[in-house]
Amino acid sequence: MRDMKAFFLHLAVLAALLAALPLLSAYHVTNVAKIMVLAVYAMGYNIAFGYTGLLSLGHALFFAAGLYAAGMGISQFGLGSAGALVAGPVAGGLIAAAVGLLALRTAGVAFMIVTLMFAQAGYLTVLYFVRYTRGDEGIVLDRAARMLGGVDLSGDTPRYLLAFALFAVALLVNLALVRSPFGRVMIAMRENEARSRMLGYNPYTVKLTALVVSGVYAGAAGAAYAVLFGYVGASLASVQYSILPLLYVLLGGAGTVLGPLLGALLMFYLIDYASSATSAYQFIVGAVLVVLVLFAPKGILGTLRERGLRWLP
Amino acid sequence: MSLGSIFLLALLEGLVSASVLALTASGLSLVFGIMRVVNVAHGEFFMLGAVIAWFVSHWVGGPPAVAFVLALGVAPLVVGGIAALADTLVLKRLNYEPEATIVATIGLLYILQQGALSLFGPNALPVPAPFDLRLQLIGFGYSGYKLAVIAAAVVILLSLWLILTHTRIGLVMRATQIDRNTARAFGINVDRVYAMVFAMGAGLAAIAAVLIVPIQQAHYLMGADPLLLSFSVVIIGGLGSLRGTVVAALLIGMVDQVIPIFLPVVLPDYGAYFTPTLAKILATLVVALVLVFRPQGLFGKRHA
């Protein structure tokens, strides 16, 4: 019964997103498409941070891996959009595996700093190969390169629908993952690593698997960003893009399936609104981070779950 | 210029950046050593120090030396005050829980950076040096101010070491570092010690910034490089060890300056590939690998 309730809630959210398409103005259609792509990224971050307890400060590396695999695949190697959308998650997963093999030898604060440094090295690598990546200026993918099965992905409606499809798959996979036996082991690692080890689970393999899944999500979001919005630039690999998913997840609720979407949605429109009123939108980001850790460390959905909605996955 | 002169010049430039780095990183190391707090906003305290130096020199008339000495006093006080406030209002309430603290200092980073941008604008702000003296060394003239920076850093680091090892306040800090509950049982006000240590750490970064700003100019984004370099120094030197921090700052400061000066001379053909960016990439990876394989630092001893 509880399972069905949760399942139908998530289906209802998906239905609402689909039903919103004809109601939204063109401006908001673009925004919500972007929010869904960023929510996929944040969902991946949540699998590592919210469920497994791995606070990474370097997820921009995995996002950028997908972004550049797709963008450079199209601009340099003549890949089609479909190929780019496959190359992205593969690249994200591979880089996450490589980083995880090393970084997971550390824990806690050291893990944060190691992931931060790897991501910084990745960002600088993008700048170093400026001849191919065009650095800060970035690669702009033209319309002809962004066709999928004869559909122009730079149009508002197809873009929204593809972002929605990716988001729906990511959400349902996330839901299934955290309700699977492996999902329970991930949570056990977060709650008490020593006890899970005693029960016979290898923390290293569990964390590495979670990080790779997280990397696949981030890579998929990066590739979708490249294909749907046609821009691949170094700023998307910078440390800001490691902080953003952390912010979304903390706001929506770490360790909840819908938290990343809620956090991305609220934060996106908060920044959008704030930057129309003042130029000081960074101030909002900083203040939200501080207020969240001080007064609502469980985020919106985490707090709701504590206060009654116990069945929320 | 002869090879010997180039070598001497590289050595001096390396010493200047190493001194400033040692000051900045010792602040980070002090905070981590005593409070176990990783302060991601440390670079912004550095930036605030520089911006305040500009503010003082801009609004105080008279010879640049007066404004500079004033800035050297005002910047660490103001920045230390902001840090103590952040500690009391935010970090203390988080009970210094490591992950929450890092997230909070990331938030603080954004707030301080935006604050500096909103108040002082996006332009680089120049600060005149307190005195203008050129010393004629073998084959080249060198700024006397830069030599003064090295001397000042040595004096400040020595005083810091004396405070920590030979004064009552240093004793209280070390007691808090070793066991804060026992320290509290002996009547030490741990909350006040923490606020003071956080302020001291920030103040050290601010002093370092005031010293470098006549050479480098103040800018609201200038905090990123000192933050990453300080992290590297503290990691290589062993987390929380002041001696290791100074040794590692010398090493990294030297490498940071000597390679870009020397490499084009020694290997003119490789200049196109071996850019400062590549050097930064390699350095970042080396530091990350040190933290993975030798978390006690290159100079630290392994203990629990």
TrEMBL record, chain A:
Keywords attached to this entry: Cell membrane, Membrane, Transmembrane, Transmembrane helix
Main location: membrane
CDD domains, sorted: TM_PBP1_LivM_like (cd06581)
GO molecular function list: branched-chain amino acid transmembrane transporter activity
Places the protein is found: Cell membrane
InterPro entries reported for this sequence: ABC_transp_permease (IPR001851), LivM-like (IPR043428)
Gene Ontology CC annotations of this record: plasma membrane
Transmembrane regions: 50-70, 82-103, 109-130, 160-178, 208-234, 246-271, 283-304
Membrane topology: Multi-pass membrane protein
Name of this chain's protein: Amino acid/amide ABC transporter membrane protein 2 (HAAT family)
TrEMBL record, chain B:
GO biological process: amino acid transport
Sorted UniProt keywords: Amino-acid transport, Cell membrane, Membrane, Transmembrane, Transmembrane helix, Transport
Transmembrane spans: 6-33, 45-61, 67-90, 102-125, 145-164, 193-213, 219-239, 246-267, 273-293
Membrane-related topology note: Multi-pass membrane protein
A GO cellular component annotation in the UniProt record: plasma membrane
GO MF annotation list: transmembrane transporter activity
InterPro entries: ABC_transp_permease (IPR001851), BCAA_transport_permease (IPR052157)
Location in or out of the cell: Cell membrane
Database matches in Pfam families: BPD_transp_2
Source domain of life: Bacteria
Family named by the database record: Belongs to the binding-protein-dependent transport system permease family. LivHM subfamily.
Name of the molecule in the record: Amino acid/amide ABC transporter membrane protein 1 (HAAT family)
Annotated source species: Albidovulum denitrificans
